[in-house]
Amino acid sequence: MSKQRYRNNLEAQRQHELEIIKxxxxxxxxxxxxxxxxxxxxxxxxxxxxxxxEALPKLSLHRYLLVKQILDTNTAERHIRGGIATRKRYLAMxxx
Length: 96
What we know:
The protein is mainly α. The chain has helices at residues 3-29, 34-41, 45-59, 61-95.
């Protein structure tokens, strides 16, 4: 591999790592969900989830622990959020 190609690969890898850090920072600062973060970065939920759970621990353990804490909270509250959304939907339908 030529030096130029090697440098380009390194630069692409650094850019990807910076994007993962940005995604993690957004997720933490907004106490967001995977879905909302994916929408903000115009990526799929599976890509965001993979970046935050598999790639992030290798880049920043501190950020990963914060992300993990929010993910665990979101998982614990998932059934409650679903019920609230259903209630809002039916109340909106009742008004019309």
